[in-house]
Amino acid sequence: MLQKRSRKVKILATLGPASSSDEMIEKLLIAGADAFRVNMSHGEQAQHAETIARIRAAEERLGRPIGILCDLQGPKLRVGKFAEGRVLIPHGRHFTLDRNPEPGNAERVQLPHPELFSILHKGQRLLVDDGKIRLRVIRASADEILCSAEVGGFISDRKGVNVPDAVIPIPALTEKDRRDLAFGVELGADWIALSFVQRPEDVAEARRLMGGYGALMAKIEKPAAVERIDEIIELSDGIMVARGDLGVELDPEDVPPLQKHIVERARWHGKPVIVATQMLESMITAPTPTRAEVSDVANAVYDGADGVMLSAETAAGDWPIEAVSIMDRIAQKVERDINYRAHVSLMQTPPDGTTSDALASACAAIAETVPIEAIICFTASGSTARRVARERPSVPLLVLTPSLRTARRLALLWGAHSITTKDIGSFEEMIAKGKRMALRQGFGTKGSRLVALAGVPFGTPGATNLLHVVTLSGNELQRHSGETAD
């Protein structure tokens, strides 16, 4: 069985060719991974089904609920193909994007996205191959877009195109995405990540297709999404700061303050937020990260993000276990810093005018005032746990839930250590079970005090209305030592 984590921030690791075997999945979990990302942009559904089955098998062996996030590809815009595979566009040279399906040359290439021709106009930018080539629109018509190459270079088949200065009139879900979403739901993915969200309506459509199963994470990688961030967060279950495309469409210096803003807004709404992309990029080929990368991870932890994500570092890199291990060590070091509490508490999250929010806030206040070992949270849907985590309490959160789906989903929630257990029927049973599970999971010893949070009547979703402080005694320790099962 995996030991409880000594850190509160979660690690989301991407699985791929370098890490999808039974042995590697288990090693990544032991090294510190809390949940896994399955990237639907690469590979076939049959391969992903095998990977998900291996994750569930590891979950059974190690006795820890593990979250699975299926990341949809989204509507990536790409140029067509070239007659010679690639061409050179010199700086300052004119270049045309058109609707002609014939192979391109040094003068033109197909842009197989007719919806772009109606929205582009003089002065707008087109960024090709992650911004390596920068085109400026001179004129646009229904059939072609004439551009000037502000930054030229080699361009090859099917390179991506970003349009930072316009809201593109295309849905966030392609036909492939719809198939992959249905596949993820069918195989029991805990999270579905929606790529290239531009507007709240994109989130609403994906949620409709999910049919109430699983949680939806909106990836913020378009400037248009930032402009409507609160609406998007409100409709989502979680947020990912996807800095790859966001960094292409914005000036580099704009990304750090936007990252902090998005993390802040997600925390204010009480939704999990993950910081992703290039966090330990050099570890794709090197056994150690750069100092700048270490600082990048540390800053996300100081900001109070729920999780940090590894992409190619674990999916295709040479050092996947080392990447997870160093990310775990960075997070632990930051959270032990005497200034960490001051940093993570800079973001104020005033409770809503509800009993549930008031009690969650009270839990955090008690932990700051009285020596408390942990907060025990009884929840069926996970909403009580999210309310408590929103306050970023100084102690860990032991989540007891009868729902394995809920426990898996909370693998990406800050500070949460989730355990599945039988439902409770009375106040006395709640307190007794809370004490037993705290002892069993290592949250306290004789004399330790705990805060228990739940709702009565038990089994009623959203009815958090009970807070109780308990002390572990020697008698409970004796009873626990003779137990073999809950």
Short characterization:
With 486 residues, this protein is α/β, with parallel strands linked by helices. The protein has helices spanning 22-31, 45-62, 175-186, 200-210, 223-227, 229-235, 243-249, 255-269, 291-302, 312-315, 320-336, 340-344, 355-369, 383-390, 404-409, 427-440, 474-481, and strands at residues 10-15, 35-39, 67-71, 86-89, 94-98, 108-110, 125-128, 133-140, 144-151, 153-156, 161-162, 191-194, 215-220, 238-242, 273-276, 307-310, 374-378, 397-401, 416-420, 449-455, 464-471.
Would you kindly provide a written description of the structure presented here, covering whatever features stand out?
The chain is α/β, with parallel strands linked by helices and 486 residues long. It folds into 3 domains: 10-74 and 171-338, Phosphoenolpyruvate-binding domains (TIM Barrel, Alpha-Beta Barrel); 86-162, PK beta-barrel domain-like (M1 Pyruvate Kinase, Domain 3), CATH 2.40.33.10; 355-481, 3-Layer(aba) Sandwich (Pyruvate Kinase, Chain: A, domain 1). The protein is 36% helix and 22% strand. It contains 17 helices and 21 strands. It has helices at residues 22-31, 45-62, 175-186, 200-210, 223-227, 229-235, 243-249, 255-269, 291-302, 312-315, 320-336, 340-344, 355-369, 383-390, 404-409, 427-440, 474-481, and strands at 10-15, 35-39, 67-71, 86-89, 94-98, 108-110, 125-128, 133-140, 144-151, 153-156, 161-162, 191-194, 215-220, 238-242, 273-276, 307-310, 374-378, 397-401, 416-420, 449-455, 464-471. An 8-stranded parallel beta barrel has the order 1-2-3-12-13-14-15-16, surrounded by 9 helices. It has a 6-stranded mixed beta sheet with strand order 6-5-9-8-7-11, covered by helices on one side. Helix 13 crosses helix 14 (383-390) and helix 16 (427-440) crosses helix 17. The chain is elongated, with a radius of gyration of 24 Å. Mean pLDDT is 93; it is low at 480-485.
